[in-house]
Amino acid sequence: MTEKPHLMIVEARFYEDIADELVKGAIAEIEKDGATYQRVSVPGCLEIPAAILYALRSMDFFTARKRFDGYVGLGCVIRGETTHYDIVCNESARGLQDLALRYALAIGNGVLTVENREQAWARASVTAKNKGGFAARACLDMIELKRQFRLYPR
């Protein structure tokens, strides 16, 4: 019997209402798969990769703690009047990709990068594009791929 994965959901709380909807979609997808999860909140999207790295590093010191099999990063970046939008979008995505490649992590990237709140809601809503659920599904699928390559226990 295959043990179900244990995921870490990292939610950026800058836009709390959108974050809540993204998390709702992610949790539904994780529970549908029979997996378990733990939620961690961070202030914004730039902090998501650091939170994942903290969790990863903590496993080096606290071996009795249940390890995470995958990570789901959720948040929203809405374009403003300055170039800060570009920095947050690019660096949060780069941070997640760097972690996935360096440590062979299963990461679902659910960071929305949009022009306005209407676009954010269209993507976050569980009755529309459900990007939170999509990010969780991507993470679960990558865990399964790791199993196929024997990078993750069966």
TrEMBL record:
(2S)-2-hydroxy-3-oxobutyl phosphate binds at residues 81-82, 123. Its EC number is 2.5.1.78. The active site is at 84 (proton donor). Keywords: Riboflavin biosynthesis, Transferase. The keyword Transferase applies. The keyword Transferase applies. GO terms for molecular function: 6,7-dimethyl-8-ribityllumazine synthase activity. It comes from the Bacteria. InterPro entries: LS, LS/RS, LS/RS_sf. Pfam families: DMRL_synthase. Gene3D superfamilies: Lumazine/riboflavin synthase. 5-amino-6-(D-ribitylamino)uracil binds at residues 14, 45-47, 76-78, 109. It is an enzyme of class 2 (transferase). It catalyses: (2S)-2-hydroxy-3-oxobutyl phosphate + 5-amino-6-(D-ribitylamino)uracil = 6,7-dimethyl-8-(1-D-ribityl)lumazine + phosphate + 2 H2O + H(+). Pathway: Cofactor biosynthesis; riboflavin biosynthesis; riboflavin from 2-hydroxy-3-oxobutyl phosphate and 5-amino-6-(D-ribitylamino)uracil: step 1/2. Catalyzes the formation of 6,7-dimethyl-8-ribityllumazine by condensation of 5-amino-6-(D-ribitylamino)uracil with 3,4-dihydroxy-2-butanone 4-phosphate. This is the penultimate step in the biosynthesis of riboflavin. HAMAP family: Lumazine_synth. Belongs to the DMRL synthase family. This is 6,7-dimethyl-8-ribityllumazine synthase. The gene is ribH.
